[in-house]
Amino acid sequence: MRSLVRVAEQLHVARGTVAYRVKRAQEILGHDIGDRRFPLYAALLLAEELGAAVLSPARPTA
C-alpha cells in the first residue's frame, strides 16, 4: 500500500504524520524505502513476528 491517505486512515493519524514517519525512516536508512522494498518488508515482518528478539539494542562487541 503506497497511499499516504489510505495508511493514515488505517492508522487513524493525519496524512502529514505518515509522510513525516516515512521521511524519517528514509533518513535513518540512508536511502529511499522504495529502493530496497523486499528487504525492508522482510525485516518488518520478522520484527512483528519475533518482537524483542530482533528489536533489542545491539550489544557492544569486544
TrEMBL record:
Boundaries of every PucR C-terminal helix-turn-helix domain copy: 3-45
Name the UniProt record assigns to this protein: Helix-turn-helix domain-containing protein
Short name of any one Pfam family annotated for the protein: HTH_30
InterPro entries in UniProt: PucR_C-HTH_dom, PucR_C-HTH_sf
Domain of life (superkingdom): Bacteria
